[in-house]
Amino acid sequence: MKQPAKQLFLFSFVFSLMGCLNYSARADRVKVENGGYSLVRPADCASLPTTIFSTSSIKGATPTNQWWSSLVWEKYSQNLFPHPLAINCSERGLALAYPGSGIVGAGGHIMGGGIGETGDFLVLHSNVTEFPDARLADYSDWFITAEFRKEESFLRSTFGHGSPYVFNRISGGNPVLKFAHQPIVWSGEEGDPIFGITVRGNHYGIFGANGSSWTGSKTDIFVNKSSKGYFTVALLPDATEATLARFAEWAHHHVIDTHFSSKLVNGQLTTKYCFEVEAMEGSGKGTLFALYPHQWKYSKVALTGESYRSVRGEMKLARGDGFETSVPIQGLLPMLPAEGISDKKQVITYLKTEAAKLEMPFADTYWDGKFLGKLTTLSGVAEVAGEEGLQKLFIDEIRRRLEDWFLASEGEKAPLFYYDKTWGTLIGSKPSYGSDGQLNDHHFHYGYFIRAAAEVARLDPTWVEKWGGMVELLIRDIASTNREDLLFPHLRCFDVYAGHSWASGHAKFGDGNNQESSSESMNAWFGLMLWGEVTGNTKLRDTGIFLYNTERTAVEEYWFDVSGTNFPKDFPEVALGMVWGGKGSFSTWFSADIDRIHGINWLPFTPASIYMGRYPDYVKKNHDRIVEKRKKGSDYNNGWGDLVVMFNSLQDSKMAVDYLESHPNCSLEGGNTHAFMSHWVHTLDRLGGNDRSVTSTHPWVNVYVKNGKKTYAAYQFGSTPNEIKFSDGFVMVAKPGMTVKNSGK
Predict the structure, then answer these.
(1) Distance CA 444, CA 446 (A)
(2) Beta-sheet strands, E only, within 562-665
(3) What percent of the chain has pLDDT over 90?
(4) Contact at 8 Å (CB) between 272 and 303?
(5) For position 675, what pLDDT does the model report?
């Protein structure tokens, strides 16, 4: 697999490469334009581990927040879930299992069959009974290699998302497979290089190198003799000779690299997923791979007709060297149109109320981030309401807070950011929820900062020259677009193949990594899009579009299951609060309240929350279930009832308008405001719901539909008009700023 060619050398060398951003380094802090960050861990931040369990072949900043992250945080890994397989790295070697055979949904959780200490079987080394550790030896976009080494003897296992294969290389001994019980052998004879077996009801192909032989076929331990230093095991979709023969054709095509690329084509996000293989035997290229629901539903790749079960739904098998998906791009606006200001006097009152609460003390990166997010949304409401003075108050406060965060002064403890060179990460002080010693939730926290910075830059481009370097460091921390980045890993938080982000930096859980607030992840990618647009960085904007729209499809499939095809039939809920590697959970980290379990995957409501209305029938189903289970039912003036109302307005705007009119000062979730709540529900009521059937060549649009009549809203950044085309044939010229047109039908 391909690793960054460069290493983190001395800091002075790194910074000399970045003179274009006006970096300069001291012993304890680094100046970045008008701001800067510390190189010393503040007292309020927990320390990070000093040992990273990787081999010397890993160059640059170590990736975190991935499905496999426990491998680099611990001596041996926790359970890893490269669906359809589950894998565990222990002192003995590699445990492997198929959790898809035992998926249940009863009790509010979607659970797989588990792996246990031995899995379906163990992959072992004949001459090593206990390895001192397991280490990351290589990685690519969705594959990794784990290395078990003792002196000169090693076992190296390569596996990844979608692959039914585990490719192995061994030195200093022979491959050993120890099964959970004596397997059923349905293909192969003692001494053959290939076997078809069934253990714990799961079917596997065992592929030794050509000319090698497996012994012990009538026991629970197989040993490969005359090994050429490589062998492969594979999860089979059935126990037939034809399937075993087909898997054998690709068994020694070891995957050595995986990578993706994406581009925008006529309102569609086209993404290519590529496998690079090394043929240990034979010739040719390609492998067998399984696609997740968010992939096969948007791909024309030829499928074999076979599939695996997973906690994400059915994974469908294909073959070749890759595949392509085409996802419709959800257009977004930086603020909602002025047509959504129904009662201007009331909205101004709301805005003034918020303007009177600006003198808030600095908090940690999450809660200060939420406050910045609130001010950013209020800026947009004030702008379309024509309240320049109020907007200036919000922008000035955003600017003040960001500039304080972005400057690390001598002796200062907070607010500031510091860089940890061991792990290659930027950490805010004060931290929260493990954002320091566990590297949790950086995309949740920093997404608020990035969007707020983009709003300042939209209104004052000169601000970028003074503070943009610090904004882009935050962006690089969570989503560096440069695979050769010296300071940060590529796309830290995002799992390219799974289609969504992970929140835990270390993933030290038996169920793998997890993500709770998918909507705060979406908020981060919205911020990337905006920052890229206002700074003229098309690559960054398009990366934001890729992340936002890819994660959107994952949210629709795995958190919401909008089409009802992925959750098990016995799962009693209509949504998940948390997605884990090995399960789905109707819960949160912080509350069992139903408003919060659902609402944590809605907040913060912003103009970018429009994606949740793409399937109005699902919105109704979701809302009705919440009302059915809420302690106070349809009395929304409690808990996070304001969010329930705003979510339901995506399919029933009249209900939301009526509620706000009768409860103009209703209770609010901490990141929400009456001003935006009013703007949101009245926009949907006046213009209609989100029309997902229409896309555009311009990313900054919304298309609304009400009683068959479409309204097209477009925001044009810059100072020149732009002709915008829509997939239904509608064409409009967008002037700088917001333009709203209707179809007249």
Answers:
(1) 6
(2) 578-580, 583-585
(3) 94
(4) no
(5) 98
Q: What is the distance between the alpha carbons of residues 621 and 634, in angstroms, rounded to a whole number?
A: 14
Is 223:216 a contact under the CB 8 Å cutoff?
A: yes
**Could you give the count of Cα atoms lying within 13 Å of 597 in the half-sphere of its Cβ?**
23
Long-range contacts from 270-273, C-beta under 8 angstroms, 24+ separation: 270/324, 270/325, 270/326, 271/324, 271/325, 271/326, 271/327, 271/546, 271/550, 272/322, 272/323, 272/324, 273/322, 273/323, 273/324, 273/325, 273/496, 273/497
Question: pTM for the full model?
Answer: 0.96
169: tokens are 């290389």
> How far apart are the C-alpha atoms of 246 and 228, rounded to whole Å?
22
As a whole number of angstroms, the distance between CA 399 and CA 710 comes to 37
For the cut 70, the answer to whether the pLDDT of residue 20 exceeds it is no
Q: What is the pLDDT of residues 50-102, one digit of tens each?
A: 999 999 999 999 999 999 999 999 999 999 999 999 999 999 999 999 999 99
**Sheet with 313-320, edge to edge strand ranges:** 287-291, 313-320, 303-310
* Residue for token pair 């994660």: 551
d(C-alpha 716, C-alpha 313), whole Å: 40
Which amino acid appears at position 542 of this protein? D
Residue 106 vs residue 89, higher pLDDT: 89
Q: Is the pLDDT of residue 744 over 90?
A: no
pLDDT at 10 over 60: no
**SS3 of 269, please?**
strand
Give me the residues paired with residue 149 across strands.
Answer: 154
Mean pLDDT to the nearest integer, 216-229: 93
Residues forming the active site: 441, 516, 520
Neighbours of 296 (CB within 10 A): 21
Give, for 711, the enclosing helix (H) or strand (E).
Answer: strand 709-716
pLDDT at 22: 66
- Residue 670: how many other CB atoms lie within 10 Å: 11
| Rounded (5°) CA angle 604-311-122 | 130
CA triple 695-701-706, angle to 5 deg: 80
- When the pLDDT of each residue in the chain is averaged and rounded to a whole number, the result is 95
- Structural contact between residues 511 and 70, judged by C-beta atoms closer than 8 angstroms: no
User: And the tokens for 545?
Assistant: 């579009």
User: pLDDT at position 282, please?
Assistant: 84
Residue 488: the pLDDT is 98
Two tokens at 555?
């949210």
pLDDT tens digit sequence for 440-459? 999 999 999 999 999 999 99
Task: Catalogue the long-range contacts made by 350-356 (C-beta closer than 8 Å, 24 or more residues apart).
Answer: 350/673, 350/674, 350/675, 350/678, 351/378, 351/381, 351/382, 351/385, 351/387, 351/390, 351/675, 352/390, 353/674, 354/378, 354/394, 354/673, 354/675, 355/390, 355/393, 355/394
**Contact (CB, 8 A) for 360 and 740:** no
State residue 19's pLDDT score: 39
CA separation for the pair 132, 121 (Å, rounded): 21
